[in-house]
Structure formats: structure tokens, C-alpha cells
Amino acid sequence: APLFYTLSLAFFWKGYFSDSKRKDLYLFLSFLMITLGIGIYYSIVFAGITLLFFLLFTEKLSFLKNKRLWKLFLLSLPFLLLSFIPSYIVQGSPIPRLGQIATIESNEIGAGWNGIFSYTRLLSGIMGNSISLSDPIISTLKSSYFIIMLLSLLVLARLAIFSDFLWKNENIRGIKNDFFIFLGWLIPFAIFTRLSMVAGGPSGAVYDAYILPAFPFLFCFMSRSIFFSKDYLLSKINNDVLKRAITVFIFIFILFGVYNQINLANNTI
């Protein structure tokens, strides 16, 4: 799921906002990743929802007049048959997951409003939140990704401040890039949070694998915060040795996050 979800959005950006001679090919590949991906895992459809939200917010309804988009989208639709036909033959429905979700919603009680922060708490654990005042240095290093994630709220605040440029469809200071990456994280995260609230038994449908497609975009957002922080710090310092030391520290800090993620993966397996 993360592979197809990430490729579909990356190809779209490359095809829609670059001057590449192959931009039509990139757009077609974006739609193709969605149509093929749905047959592999249904949550790939969230990529289409992400694109729709992005275009609606930045271009209003004017994108509906884009014949190029429609042509390439329609060319990709026949590839849905690769999953729809076998699903219909074997399970009696072209999209059996929709029926399963409807059954779950009608037969099971989700977490209700108690589930609105279920994936937020899960995300905190995945990112290694283990900050402790009793052992501040070690716990901070173990929580490096979590701390960087909190720093990325600065990028989110910047996005909110310049949101009027988004509404005017202007890419001032790369604001559309940030918004696109943010939506890539938000859409699957929000949809599964909603699912947790309405389905899956008393505890809700909370499972770390569901939100895997959101992580490449969350990491992109976190990387933006790292660069912003580094550039700000270096702009305030004139000593070259100290600048190098800060760069090395940031690199080591990131490596601790990598190490902790490998440990988490091993423990999960």
C-alpha cells in the first residue's frame, strides 16, 4: 500500500506541476498506480481522494475543465477490470470490501468519540515517544523521531499562515508543495480515525498497518522541519566549526531515530 500510494501522488506532482516533456506519461502513471493499486489494497483509493481535495482547494472547480486530466484518467479506468472482474467472479462483488465495511458498521460498535485520538496515540508510540525526566538524555535520543515530528508542527503553522496563497492557487514559498505533502498524510490518517470511531468493536479498528501509506508523507513533512531548523540555526551563527558541529549533531540525532525504528520493526515482527 505505501508503495502504490506514494508513487501515485509522486507521479501526479511530477506530471501536473513540472515542465517535463513526459508530464502526460507521469499523469497517466499516477492514475494507473491508483487503478492497479485498488486491486492490491483498497486503501489506495485514498490517493484519489487526496488529489481531489488538493485540486478542489487550490483550483476550485476549474480543474474539471482540464481535458488532459480527463483523457488520461479515462485511459486508466479499464485497468480497474483487472481487479473488479476476478473479485466479482470469486466473491460476487466487484468491490467486496465496501460490503464488509457496511456489515461491520451495522453489526459492531466502534470506539465512538473515544476513538478520535486512537491513531494519534498509536502514532506517538510508533514514533518512539519515551521522553522521561528521570533519564532525559537517553529518553530524548530514543524519542528523536517523535521530537522531530513535534517540530514539524512549525511547518504546519507556516502552512496555516500562508493558506490564503493556497486559496489563490499561488505557490508562494513552496506552500502548495507543503499542502500536498500534508494532505498525503492527513487523508488516510483521518479516514482510519473515522473508521475507528464507527467500527471494529468497543476498542475501534486500530491497527498500525492501516496507516502505513501515511508515513512517507509524514517523513517528508518532518524533513522540512529539519531543514527549516538547521537553516535558522546556521543563519544565527558565524563560527564555521560550530556550524559543522550542529550539522553533525542533527545527522546523529536522525540516526538514533533510524536505529529505534529498526528495533521497533524487529520487535513488531
Uncertain segments of ≥5 residues (pLDDT<50)? none
Tell me the distance between the termini: 18 Å
Helix content class: over 70%
Q: What's the number of extended β-strand segments?
A: 0
Q: If you average the pLDDT, what whole number results?
A: 87
Q: Which shape, going by the Cα principal axes?
A: globular
Structural class, from secondary structure content? mainly alpha
- The fraction of residues assigned to DSSP E strands is under 5%
Rg, nearest Å? 21 Å
- Topology as a string of helices (H) and strands (E): HHHHHHHHHHHHHH
- What kind of sheet is the major sheet? none
Tally of alpha and pi helices: 14
Question: What can you tell me about this protein's structure?
Answer:
The relative contact order is 0.11. It is globular and about 65 Å long. The mean pLDDT is 87. α3 (45-59) crosses α12 and α13 (215-235) packs antiparallel against α14. The protein starts with a helix and ends with a helix. The protein has helices spanning 2-17, 23-40, 45-59, 67-76, 81-91, 96-107, 118-126, 136-142, 144-151, 153-161, 163-167, 175-198, 215-235, 240-268. By secondary structure, the protein is an all-alpha fold. The longest helix has 29 residues, at 240-268.
Q: What would the keywords be for this entry?
A:
269 residues; mainly alpha; 0% strand; globular
Task: Describe the secondary-structure layout.
Layout: H1 2-17, H2 23-40, H3 45-59, H4 67-76, H5 81-91, H6 96-107, H7 118-126, H8 136-142, H9 144-151, H10 153-161, H11 163-167, H12 175-198, H13 215-235, H14 240-268
Helix pairs in contact: 1-2, 1-3, 2-4, 3-12, 9-13, 10-12, 12-13, 13-14
